[in-house]
Structure formats: C-alpha cells, structure tokens
TrEMBL record:
This is Unsaturated rhamnogalacturonyl hydrolase YteR. It comes from the Eukaryota. It comes from Penicillium subrubescens. Keywords: Hydrolase, Signal. Pfam families: Glyco_hydro_88 (PF07470). The lineage of its organism: Eukaryota, Fungi, Dikarya, Ascomycota, Pezizomycotina. InterPro entries: 6-hairpin_glycosidase_sf (IPR008928), 6hp_glycosidase-like_sf (IPR012341), Glyco_hydro_88 (IPR010905), PolySaccharide_Degr_Enz (IPR052043).
C-alpha cells in the first residue's frame, strides 16, 4: 500500500545521511520526499472519486513531510524547504473536496484520518475557514462511524470487522483534534481511544507471542474468524506496525489535555508490545517477516514496510523515554540493525537521481480467506514500487 514512504519518515527519526557520493549531506528522508514530489504523486486525483487506499498514501506522506520540515528546520541540509511547504499546502487542499460530507466519509476506511494532521497544521497557519469545516466534518464522521456489536469501529465497509490498521490514523487524530479544538471533551475521547485499542488487544493478542493478529470479526461469521475471539489467524507485520506507531505517535502529543489515564495506558501497552516485537525480530537481519510467527517458512520473507514501521516506532519510543532503560537499549540496538538492512537491501537509487523502495507487499486483506496461501504466498514477493 505505502511502498517508498516509509524510509522518508524513518530517516527523519534518526537523522541518517545518504551513502551516495553525490548525496553525502542529504538525508534519505529529504531525498525520498523530493523523489515522490518529482514524480508528481501523493496527491489526491482531480476527479470526484478516489480509491480507498489513496487517503492513506496522501495522508501518510503529508505526515512525513511535516516531520521533515519540523526536524530539519534550518536551510541546510534541505535546499528545497519552500518546495516542501508548497507541496504540503497543495496536497492538503486537494483532500478537502473528498471529506466534506460526514455521512459519506464513513464509507472510506479509517485511513481517511491520516490527512487530519496536515489539515490541522494548515488551518493553524492560515485560519482558512474551509479547512476548519473539513476538520470538523472529519471529526463528526467518527460519531457516525459504524461500530461492531461490542463497540469497535468498523475499519471499512465490512460489517463487524475491526483492524489494527486504522488505529494509526484515527487515534492520533482524535487526540490532536481534541487538544486543539475540543479540549473540554478530552476525558470522553480518552475513554473511547482506550476502548478501541483495548478491543483489538483483547481479541487479537496471541498469548504465546504477545503479538497481535491483523483484526477480528465481532460476529465471528467470517471464514477466517476464531470461534471464540473472532480473531484472524495470522500476525501481519504491517498491521502490527500501524498499531505500534499509533501508540508512540499518540504518546508524543505531550500536552496538558492528553489525560494521564490515556498516557499511562498507552505507555504500558507500548512497553509490552515493543518487547514482543523485539523478540520476533529476525536474528540475521534484525528486521521482521511478513507473517511474523512463521520465520523461514516457504513463501514468507523479510518485508520492508512493516520492518520500517517497527524500526521507526522502536527508535522513537527509546528516544522519547517511553521505555524502561534496558528495553530502550534493546530497542535501539534492534532498530539500528534493521535500519542498516533496510538501507542495504531495500532502498533503490534510480538512474534519474530519485529514490525507490523495494520489498513491500502490495496488500494482505482480510476480505479473503485469509489463509497462509493468500497472506503468506500469493500476495507476497518483491512488489513493484508504488510510486514509480
């Protein structure tokens, strides 16, 4: 789904310069961001409709550009900050026409909320009334979002199905929207955030590994659903990555309006899940398998997007002091080992001077039998680059 965007966000987290002789001072994050913009991508289409995956692709890249501009706030090493600012403004405004009907918004995956960070940033800079309306409409769509029979958000249009994936977009959005625009509702929002995360934790967690499977069907009617929990059968690295990043990115919102009960909950979950993720890392590469509990099984392989997400989350959790000292050291060591493998094995320097990113699975949808053959073989392999 996301392909080359991961290295952009990941590199911002650790400030790593590129290894190319021609780009010895330019970090991979800046190089990758400029490559995406050079290709004219990560923008909403001009027509009246967009594919369901477009919102996440655009919103996630907007977040990466925001991080890039925040982190490298001096003119060097980025020589094109004005270009990044222009992209961010254009991309943000391109989202607006697609999100102005709260009822229709509920027919879009929870990934739609990934665009909220840039919308809020642009609104706070410009006080544009249309951006405020878009933000408020997005927030209203949460009130209208279908929920399963135990109160969990539907990820998409599949009745009763809740996924780990959507937490990365919707949970931080709820937090920063409430902090900025609805602080008097912070306690109720915190309760709902904890409920959504906890339902997934309760229904998807494997006691034997501490990892979470992709999602669950609250009705337990899906062909793949566990008869007791409704859980899907496999731990998919990218869905786990979205969930782990949701925890650390929401914790980063260190404001008085992030209730202590929520901060405590997030940190406890982050510690337990980080420990489980580190235990699942591949000994040779330091990275993670597509289906995390089947290392080395035919059809399985080290997958680049989930690996980048775990690397980002572990580095960040350690750097910001969210982990106990010993676990923080393990997190940094594991993330460093995987990052080196990512750069060596997956980052592609193209002949036209742009960067690409290999080794990412296209999709692993539960809208299938969710068998090993579907999740672990048919849809796996060295996927073509999304943005090339």
């Amino acid at each position: 789904m996301m392909r080359i965007l991961f290295i952009c966000l990941l590199s911002v987290c650790i400030d790593t310069p590129s290894a190319s002789a021609a780009d010895t001072t330019r970090p991979y994050s800046a190089w990758m961001a400029e490559s995406v913009i050079d290709r004219g991508q990560a923008m909403m289409p001009p027509g009246p409709k967009a594919s369901s995956s477009t919102y996440l692709q655009v919103g996630f890249f907007q977040t990466a550009v925001l991080r890039l501009l925040e982190y490298y706030h001096t003119p060097e090493p980025i020589s094109s900050q004005s270009r990044l600012h222009d992209y961010l403004a254009d991309s943000t405004h391109s989202v607006v026409p697609f999100l102005l009907n709260a009822t229709q918004d509920t027919q879009i995956p929870l990934d739609r909320f990934s665009t909220g960070k840039s919308l809020l940033h642009q609104y706070e800079e410009t006080h544009n009334a249309t951006l405020k309306v878009t933000l408020d409409t997005l927030r209203e769509s949460i009130n209208l979002q279908p929920r399963n029979i135990i109160g969990g958000y539907w990820y998409f249009v599949y009745p009763q199905w809740s996924y780990l994936d959507g937490m990365y977009s919707v949970i931080p959005f709820l937090s920063y929207y409430t902090t900025a625009l609805a602080a008097d509702n912070s306690s109720a929002v915190a309760d709902d955030i904890m409920k959504q995360l906890d339902l997934l934790w309760t229904h998807c967690r494997q006691n034997s590994t501490g990892l979470l499977v992709h999602g669950y069907d609250a009705s337990k009617k899906a062909v793949w659903a566990n008869s007791v929990t409704g859980a899907s059968p496999y731990v998919w690295s990218r869905s786990m990555g979205w969930y782990l990043m949701a925890l650390v990115d929401t914790l980063e919102l260190e404001t008085p309006n992030l209730p202590l009960k929520l901060r405590t909950y997030l940190q406890r979950r982050l510690v337990r899940l980080s420990d489980a993720v580190i235990s699942a890392a591949d000994a040779q590469t330091g990275c993670w398998w597509q289906l995390m509990t089947f290392p080395g099984r035919p059809g399985n392989y080290i997958e680049s997007s989930g690996s980048a997400m775990f690397t980002y989350a572990l580095y960040k959790a350690a750097r910001l002091g969210y982990l106990p000292k010993r676990l923080a050291a393990k997190s940094t060591d594991t993330a460093s080992k995987c990052y080196r493998h990512i750069v060596d094995a997956f980052v592609v320097q193209n002949s036209n001077g742009t960067l690409g990113y290999n080794g990412t699975v296209a999709v692993c949808s539960l809208n299938s039998t969710a068998s090993y053959e579907v999740c672990g073989t048919t849809l796996m392999g060295r996927a073509p680059l999304f943005y090339e």
